[in-house]
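Protocol step 4 of 6: structure prediction from sequence.
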Amino acid sequence: MITAEPTTCAIITRAQFQGFVAAHPEVAQHLIETLIRRVRVATEDVKSLALSDVYGRFVRLLNALATMQEGKFGVHEKLTQQDIADRVGASRDMIGKLMKDLVAGGYLRIEDRTITFLKKLPPGW
């Protein structure tokens, strides 16, 4: 397995984990809250895949990843079209077409795999 960042892993037994949680109940509360957040995100992702078209999922991803950096609002994480396609459940060709159209329409600028928003993305494509 390959990790994106240096990683240290440890293995603990079920009994060790249960003992730790019993001694530190706040850990159980934190785990429950974290799981609830993750289930909500997963539910939204599944709902989006089922109910949104590719353009809607694409816009949702860009908006979720966008940040302000050096006075520019956009996606500063260097993503390939295939990375985006994998995240939204689409083909690389479809993402390429969407990006090309949004650049031609003056909505986005793409330089060195950095996506800068020039104006608000249209509600539909």
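Step 5 (inspection) to follow. Residues 9-51 form one domain.
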